[in-house]
Amino acid sequence: xxxxxxxxxxxxxxxxxxxxxxxxxxxxxxxxxxxxxxRAVYSSTHTVFDLNTVRFYSGYHRGDSVWLHASxxxxxxxxxxxxxxxxxxxxxxxxxxxxxxxxxGMATGDVSLVAxxxxxxxxxxxxxxxxxxxxxTAPTASGGALTLAQMVRVEMVCDGxxxxxxxxxxxxxxxxxTEWAFPGSAPGTGQMxxxxxxxxxxxxxxxxxxxxxxTDLQNELLDLGYDLGQWGADGDYGQVTADxxTDLQxxxxxxxxxxxxxxxxxxxxxxxxxxxxxxxxVSHLAVADDGAWIGPATAPETTVSPRLxxxxxx
Length: 314
Fold this sequence. Notes:
Order of helices and strands: EHEEEEEEEEEEEEEEHHHEEE
Helix content: 10-25%
Largest sheet: 10 strands, antiparallel
Mean pLDDT: 93
Number of strands: 18
Low-confidence stretches: 303-314
Radius of gyration: 22 Å
């Protein structure tokens, strides 16, 4: 196995993540920051080997969020990192609350790995395409339940056709790990990005729709200061509502600007309404070039300063 990227993703507590800080924590290879800023900082709240980790807050949309970019070798390849996911059902939306923790294809996002909390409180991994409203690619799952609110080690292997994901409690390495297999779902790209974009599983609302879901959307638009004309929140997704959604998409830099209220547009609205989701933390990213499981990270070497006796080191 050749490790092409090995980065502990650690830095000074409170400092923002940047290409310079990422280079300083690299053992091998290059990791860069996409959209660096205040949403990704080093934090001592949760550590790995007593090293600070990267704390991610979600952006308004995928293009506005911070991502840590790494190049992948040609298949077969493998990857490993650590993440601490928040108890997502605490947000009040049940299993509809999800996080994109890794995506392939950068801006095109041809496939993304998402994490959510099951009804029983354990981690579930799923794949989603660029259309977040299209639903998940369900895996073949095996192994025991993996609880949230702990540092989870995520590992992936890809042979060019299939993608398999495993989850471990920290540095544990049980004989039967928690596994999610996605046959025929290998990402068609030579790059990956770690992040923490948050959205909710919801259908797309569009011109002609009617009902309570439309009324809820319209009330949120009104709360954000968008004009719905004389009819207001009438439960009818007419042209005035579509125009208001278009204005919101323009204001927050969403793409496409289509006047349709899909999960990503609604996620931007949630954040604009100060519904700020809990952050997640990431650490110790590694990539290898032969498709073998990488395994847990190793502790950094420590240097012991020599003691002085009468000015002479011993």
